[in-house]
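Q: Sequence in, structure out?
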Amino acid sequence: MRCADHYLRVEVLNSGPSVLAGSATGHRSRPAPVQTHGAGRGLLGLRERVAVYGGDLDARRRLGGGYRVRARIPLDRP
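A: Exactly. Output:
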């Protein structure tokens, strides 16, 4: 977590298999689809909650392995 003059940045990293690592057949597992229904859980729900405060969310695989989710939220409401 990092706080600057005008925004708060929250970043969560996890480790996992490298994006470059694959099986002998070259098949890579696909991430589970994001659910668009229910109680607003998952990345879509998180993105919506961050957007309510005028922020943005970036979620992607890390080249060295794992996943990164980063939210940037303005401290002054728009």
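The radius of gyration is 16 Å.
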